[in-house]
Amino acid sequence: MTPNLAAAAPRHMTDLPSPLLTARPIVEVKSVSKTYPGGIEALSGISLDFPEGRLTTLLGPSGCGKTTLLKIIAGLIPASGGQVFVDGREVKGPGPERAFVFQDFALMPWASVIRNVAFGLELRGVAHSEREAIAERHIARVGLKGFERKYPHELSGGMRQRVGLARALAVDAKVVLMDEPFSAVDEQTRRKFQEELLELVANEGKSFIFVTHSIEEAVYVSDRIALLSRRPSRVSAIIEPKIARDDDPDRIRRDSAYLDVVEEIWQQLKHYLD
Ligand SMILES: Nc1ncnc2c1ncn2[C@@H]1O[C@H](COP(=O)(O)OP(=O)(O)OP(=O)(O)O)[C@@H](O)[C@H]1O
Ligand SMILES: [Mg+2]
């Protein structure tokens, strides 16, 4: 199998028709390129649709342009070419319908946990008491109750990451962009967050664009996985894991359908290691 497959049609683990094929794309990336000042070409004409109400994961080698693509979708940096549409409207900058969980947490060091979590709401002009109440709920949800008045330097890396997560969830955006959101937490917390993420996807109708380096995590949480090639990145394959999520998490992780997808992705990605 060659690593540079042309953008493939979605592959399924069963012959059932894919509900994703008919799901409306909430985010459409059309021939997007990005060359950074200094000449590094991170993306070269990448095109990809993200189905509404689902979780799509970008999986690819370090430095292939995943964060770059998320930032372009978020409107935080401009593309050098191509277009991104969110809910049918072309992205020209950040917007309230998109929230970002940053790879490096991006907390304000001078602001308390609660102010950091409430920051998106503050920008939207939500009244102080209301935004603090919302922030408190989300702080509790990520397991940080009692840390509301602490500052980022008083927290561990994993706790900071949870603050970033709470901040993104607090704004109640339609599209949540998550850049390795669980990379700094321990395995137990990571699995708890994965379950909560699956619940959010199932119950809140939000659309998630997720980046992880973990193939197992990608297969476990994703409705759709876009495998990206080395920089400048292109989509090398699209895989829809079709995991029966109503089963016990431990059983799912031992299930042959799950393990087969993990293996299939590994066989494709290992070409990028040399
Ligand atoms: N602000 C910048 N200026 C110049 N080059 C940049 C900038 N940001 C990223 N790059 C380069 O663009 C390429 C893609 O970077 P990006 O951060 O998008 O990769 P990534 O897929 O998110 O990697 P990782 O998995 O390690 O987080 C890299 O070669 C990186 O060095
Ligand atoms: Mg990155």
In brief:
By secondary structure, the protein is α/β, with parallel strands linked by helices. It is built from nine helices and eleven strands. The strands form two sheets. A seven-stranded mixed beta sheet has the order 1-11-10-4-9-8-7, with helices on both faces. Strands 3-2-5-6 form a four-stranded antiparallel beta sheet, covered by helices on one side.
Care to describe what's here?
The chain is α/β, with parallel strands linked by helices and 274 residues long. The chain has 9 helices and 11 strands. The chain has helices spanning 19-22, 66-74, 113-123, 128-141, 157-170, 187-204, 215-221, 249-254, 256-269; strands spanning 11-12, 25-35, 41-51, 55-59, 81-86, 89-90, 98-101, 175-179, 207-211, 224-228, 235-240. Helix 4 packs across helix 5. The longest helix is centred in the C-terminal third of the chain and has 18 residues, at 187-204. The structure holds adenosine-5'-triphosphate and magnesium ion. Adenosine-5'-triphosphate binds at residues 36, 38, 40, 42, 62-68, 103, 231.
